[in-house]
Amino acid sequence: MIFKHKKKIIFILIVILIIFFPTYTPKIRDEHYRVIKGSIAELSKLELGGINQSIMIRGNNIDNPIIFISSWWSRLFFYKLC
Question: Does the predicted TM-score (pTM) go above 0.70?
Fold first, then answer.
């Protein structure tokens, strides 16, 4: 009976995983699979230009600055889509 509905069960499990774990970014590791000390790998939610956004920040050195570039044309393009 379980094998008869195998595809449906797998589909439901995948949907449940997506709902409870929608995004993930793994830690940064070296060639020996050790986490690099001082690295950063995170997902953050913030508001940019009045729009809620999710951003992924990854880098080998947490002391390096984040460079974020936003332009007026990308904002206009987004508003035209909505």
Answer: no
